[in-house]
């Protein structure tokens, strides 16, 4: 269990994502922080990351790893496709329901 509220996590997550962004940009990728809900971080990988077969590894071993180092070892990052990004909160609610 992550001992921080979503509101407390947001600034730390934003700072950590800013560290990761240049690495993604080197390969033509980008990342957009959509928000934090239920202790989970919702992002949308963009640019060259969209449709890239390595994007799952980028998410797990790049983004999530950095957030776990910077913030908390149990933090989870979920990528939302760019065309669904506007509905990320609805998707977050569905994920929370499935986890109960």
Describe the model:
Helix content is 48%, strand content 21%. The model has no long low-confidence stretch (mean pLDDT 91). 23% of the residues are buried. It has helices at 6-26, 55-70, 88-98, and strands spanning 29-37, 40-47, 76-79. Strands 1-2-3 form a three-stranded mixed β-sheet, with helices on both faces. With 100 residues, the protein is an alpha+beta fold. The protein has a single domain, classed as Fe-S cluster assembly (FSCA) (GMP Synthetase, Chain A, domain 3, 2-Layer Sandwich). The chain is built from three helices and three strands, in the order H-E-E-H-E-H. The two termini are 14 Å apart. The protein is globular, with a radius of gyration of 13 Å.
Salient structural properties:
100 residues; alpha+beta; GMP Synthetase, Chain A, domain 3; three-stranded mixed β-sheet; 3 helices; 3 strands; 21% strand
Write the layout of secondary structure elements.
Elements: H1 6-26, E1 29-37, E2 40-47, H2 55-70, E3 76-79, H3 88-98
Parallel strand pairs: 2-3
Antiparallel strand pairs: 1-2
Helix pairs in contact: 1-2
Radius of gyration: 13 Å
CATH topology grouping = GMP Synthetase, Chain A, domain 3
The structural class is: alpha+beta
In the sheet with the most strands, the strands line up as 1-2-3
What gap, in angstroms, lies between the N and C termini? Answer: 14 Å
Helix content: 40-55%
Number of helices: 3
* Beta-strand share of residues: 15-25%
């Amino acid at each position: 269990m992550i001992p921080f509220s979503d509101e407390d996590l947001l600034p730390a997550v934003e700072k950590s994502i800013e560290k990761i962004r240049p690495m993604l940009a080197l390969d033509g990728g980008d990342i957009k922080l959509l928000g934090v809900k239920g202790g989970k971080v919702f992002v949308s990988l963009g640019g060259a990351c969209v449709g890239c077969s390595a994007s799952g590894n980028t998410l797990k071993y790049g983004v999530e790893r950095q957030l776990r180092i910077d913030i908390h070892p149990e933090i989870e990052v979920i990528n939302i496709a760019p065309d669904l990004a506007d509905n990320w909160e609805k998707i977050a609610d569905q994920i929370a329901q499935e986890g109960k």
